[in-house]
Every structure is written in structure tokens, then in C-alpha cells.
Design a protein that fits this description.
The protein contains 13 helices and 26 strands. The chain is an alpha/beta fold and about 500 residues long. It has a domain of about 100 residues: GMP Synthetase, Chain A, domain 3 (2-Layer Sandwich). The strands form seven sheets. The chain has an eight-stranded mixed sheet, sandwiched between helices. Helix 1 runs antiparallel to helix 2 and helix 2 packs across helix 3. The longest helix has 18 residues.
Length: about 500
């Protein structure tokens, strides 16, 4: 009897276990199962799952004919959300990593990219540029249906470059976050769990694909067969029975100010936010007129969602997340003691792309150090205390910026607040506090209250009102810009 070979596959054969499904696999299933269900609505495009799947096949063929190949890294510059979506998904089919950029202005990503896919032409781009204008998309749309079966789809390996994002925190210093396919899929799965996406979910936001959380939530919705809606918040909230709304804190205040007098509160809307605290007045207002629940997640691009924060800045760690509090020497502190936060999760990244100095600072022995301070007040129960690098030294008087902001945000008229250090024309250190108010006529009262709440710095304090606060694309206040705003005020 001839023996049956039980040897492992040869080196050039990829074991099935190491291959991950791509987003198109899920789109194909939903196109077969619920072909007429709305998958995506943005601007003038409302498309079903079947249309999205067919359009994606055409764009994948088009990019393949341009020469995009597995292992490359592409920058995508496209203002129309549907076209941008198709380009990102088509690149995934080709095992091409992507980053979304808002403009063709100089970026550190040019030094890492192989190709730029842009809606406009620019002669100054230092890497290969493909101009994908309306004529290109029209030509792609005319691709014969008989050719669609030949559209490539490579599921790829967990180690493949999937997505590149930028993380600057409150410092404004750009750091490049590189996410592989395996990390991305685990992070998307955690989004499905933590935000409870189902096939009946309708997800709405007005942010672009540049924000990593937005792209991850869109991918999560497509895996579940949910509906994704972008832009025109008031119109979309009226038209759809939205279940999941994701906005940064400053956008929440803006949306609440725009609600008409005859506004009717949605039935079952959960509002998700992150990147900064939400003041008590804004939170109460949102829960009263807009949402059944406002969820503020403590999260970072590098490690994903850590926990849901309540009004006291406390929360229990999400499943799969480990966290410890350490002292200046890196030794773990017991429950109750305040120190620096170190966190890890299965879907986290482990370095910044070709930025060894930042990597050494923030990634140590398998843990990510986001630069935040906190304490454990119980088992897996975190209290967030503020930023390690936000201590303001005003003429020798030291106060955490986060504490100042939380103190003032408790005032009913204060919608948003940011504190920073400045220097007067006489060379004296001053505390600068920018506030967004429900009524700017209340500024004198806010100044008086701020002086009483922070008496040690009352003589060195300048409180000024702004229509909005300067923020990074991920929603964190840019403290470096507060001084310039104070000068103009």
C-alpha cells in the first residue's frame, strides 16, 4: 500500500491560516444576500451593495492596468467620498497599502510612498503620480461586464501593509502609524464588539477617510452589512434612522447649535466621540435633544479603544486591553496611585514608521506609552488624570492643563476650553485659556469665575472667546496654536 504524504506545503505555498479575508469578500457576500440594501451614501451617490461591489471590480481592474502591484504603498487624494472609497478598497484587493491625504502639499509620506493616486495633476509630486480625474472614472465605469470576473482580488497575509495614518497628539509633531492587515482586522473586530454594529446599523459621520477611526468603522460596517452615510449631518439625521453617529467633541457642539427649533430627537441614536473630554453642559444637551447615549472612548491610533469614559473620566477597560500604571522608572504602581499609563492590545502597532526616536519614547517592552497619566481605582477600572506633558509652569506655579480645562468646562456656558502657556509683551509667563461659549456676552462672567476657581494664577490669566478651538485631524487640541489665537484676540 502506498504511503500518503503528510508533509507541510512547500515554502512558496501560503498556509490558509495565515491568509486574511479582504473587505471585498464581505461586500460580495452582501451583494448576493441583500443586493438592493443601501451600502453607502455620500454627496450625490446612493449605492446598493450590488452596485458598490460591481463598481469596485471595475476600479480594481483600472488600477491593475495602471501597474499597481502587491507590496506597494499608495497615497490617495480624492475629494469625492465614493471615488475615494473605491480607490481604497481596490488597493486592498491588490495588496497595496494606502494612506488618505487631503491635499498634494508636501508631506513626510512622500518619502515612503511608491505612487500617488490623485484627482488632480501636480508637476511637483516627487513620486509616480496617476491622475484619476472624472474622465478616468467614466472610462472605468464603461468596462465590459464580461471582464469583471477577471478583476484581481488578493486576500493577502496578516503581515501585509494595510493602512498608514498620522498621529500627532497634542504636540503637532507628525508621527507615522503603520498598520498591517492582521492588526487592522483585529481592530475592526474590536470596533464591531465595542460599538455593537449589526446588519441593521446605520453609521453617520462627516469626517473624511484621513481619520483612521472613520476608515475602521466603515470597514466594520461593511463586514456586518450595515449602511454607511457621510456628510450633511442634519439632512442625513432627518432622512435616516441613524443608529451610530461618530463626531469629535468640537463637532458635537457645532451640531447642537445648528439644530432647528422644530427638531425631533432621533429614536435610538448612540453618539460616539473621543480625542478630548466633553463638557458637562454639552453632554447633558446632547443626551436631552440628540442621542439616547453619548459614549466618549479613551483611545489612540496606536492601540485603538481602551475604555469608555464616564463624566468623572473613569471607565472599565475593554476586552483584550491590558493597562498598568507606572512610575518614572517604569515600575508598576499599586491600585490607587497616580502615574503614567502603559497600555497594550492584540491589535496595537509596535513602532512608528522609520522614526526610531519617537518609537523609543512611546513603545517599550511591548507596551505603548501614550503620554497620559491616570490611576487604577479598582480592578481594570481606570481614572484618566490628564497628559504627562501638559503640566503648565506659569512663573513657577505648576498646574496640569487638563485640570484647568475640566474645572472650567463644568461652567454651564462653557462648551469647549483649552489652556496653554504664553508670554506677555513684558516677558511675563501667563496662563492662556481659550473658550467656546454658548453666548459670548457671558465672557466677563466666565473670566471672573475662572479667576475664583484658579486663584493662584488669577493675576496671570487671560481668558478669551473663540468660535472654535484649533485641533489636529484626530480631534486633539493643538496647544501650540493657542498663543497665536490669544495674540489676535
Amino acid at each position: 500500500m502506498q504511503a500518503v504524504s503528510t508533509s507541510m506545503p512547500s515554502a512558496h505555498v501560503t498556509p490558509f491560516e495565515s491568509v486574511t479575508a479582504c473587505t471585498t469578500d464581505f461586500l460580495e457576500y452582501h451583494a448576493l444576500q441583500t443586493p438592493d440594501k443601501i451600502a453607502f451614501h455620500a454627496k450625490d451617490v446612493i449605492c446598493s451593495y450590488s452596485k458598490l461591489y460591481l463598481d469596485l471590480q471595475r476600479v480594481t481592474l483600472g488600477l491593475n492596468q495602471l501597474g499597481l502591484r502587491s507590496g506597494q504603498f499608495a497615497l490617495v487624494h480624492e475629494s469625492h467620498p465614493y471615488r475615494h472609497l473605491l480607490l481604497l478598497l481596490a488597493c486592498e484587493n491588490l495588496r497595496v497599502g494606502t494612506a488618505s491625504i487631503q491635499s498634494l502639499s508636501p508631506t513626510i509620506l512622500y518619502t515612503k510612498a511608491d505612487v500617488v493616486l490623485s484627482e488632480t495633476h501636480s508637476p511637483g509630486i516627487p513620486v509616480l503620480l496617476h491622475t484619476l480625474d472624472s474622465a478616468w472614472f467614466e472610462a472605468v465605469a464603461s468596462t465590459s461586464a464580461a471582464l469583471l470576473a477577471t478583476a484581481p482580488r488578493e486576500r493577502g497575509l496578516a503581515s501585509d501593509l494595510m493602512r498608514v495614518s498620522r498621529s500627532s497628539g497634542t504636540t503637532g509633531i507628525p508621527k507615522v502609524v503603520r498598520i498591517n492587515r492582521g492588526q487592522f482586522e483585529q481592530w475592526v473586530s474590536s470596533q464591531i464588539r465595542n460599538k455593537a454594529y449589526t446588519p441593521k446599523s446605520i453609521f453617520l459621520t462627516d469626517y473624511g477617510f484621513e481619520v483612521y477611526s472613520v476608515w475602521g468603522q466603515i470597514a466594520a460596517c461593511f463586514r456586518m452589512g450595515a449602511t454607511v452615510v457621510l456628510g450633511a449631518l442634519l439632512d442625513r439625521l432627518t432622512r435616516y434612522d441613524v443608529s451610530h453617529l461618530w463626531l469629535l467633541p468640537n463637532k458635537i457642539s457645532e451640531l447642537l447649535r445648528q439644530l432647528p427649533a422644530d427638531w425631533e430627537k432621533p429614536r435610538n441614536l448612540v453618539l460616539f466621540t473621543g480625542g478630548a473630554p466633553v463638557s458637562d453642559p454639552v453632554s447633558r444637551h446632547a443626551n436631552r435633544v440628540l442621542c439616547t447615549d453619548l459614549v466618549n472612548n479613551y483611545a489612540a491610533n496606536e492601540v485603538g479603544s481602551v475604555c469608555r469614559l464616564d463624566r468623572d473620566n473613569t471607565g472599565y477597560l475593554f476586552a483584550g486591553v491590558d493597562l498598568r500604571i507606572v512610575d518614572a522608572a517604569g515600575a508598576e504602581l499599586p491600585i490607587g496611585e497616580e502615574g503614567e499609563i502603559a497600555v497594550r492590545a492584540p491589535w496595537m502597532i509596535h513602532d512608528y514608521w522609520q522614526q526610531p526616536d519617537y518609537t523609543a519614547t512611546h513603545f517599550r517592552q511591548g507596551w505603548f506609552y501614550p503620554g497620559d497619566r491616570g490611576r487604577l481605582i479598582g480592578y481594570r477600572h481606570l481614572q484618566l488624570m490628564g497628559r504627562s506633558d501638559d503640566m503648565l509652569n506659569i512663573g513657577g506655579i505648576k498646574q496640569p492643563a487638563d485640570m484647568i480645562e475640566r474645572t472650567l468646562s463644568a461652567m454651564p456656558s462653557v462648551l469647549e476650553v483649552a489652556a496653554a502657556k504664553g508670554v506677555s509683551t513684558e516677558g511675563v509667563d501667563v496662563l492662556l485659556i481659550a473658550v467656546v461659549l454658548s453666548d459670548n456676552s457671558l465672557l466677563p462672567a466666565v473670566r471672573k469665575a475662572a479667576a475664583s476657581k484658579i486663584p493662584l494664577l488669577a493675576r496671570y490669566m487671560f481668558v478669551f472667546a473663540r468660535a472654535s478651538l484649533p485641533r489636529t485631524p484626530n480631534g486633539k487640541v493643538m496647544r501650540s496654536a493657542i498663543a497665536a489665537l490669544a495674540q489676535s484676540s
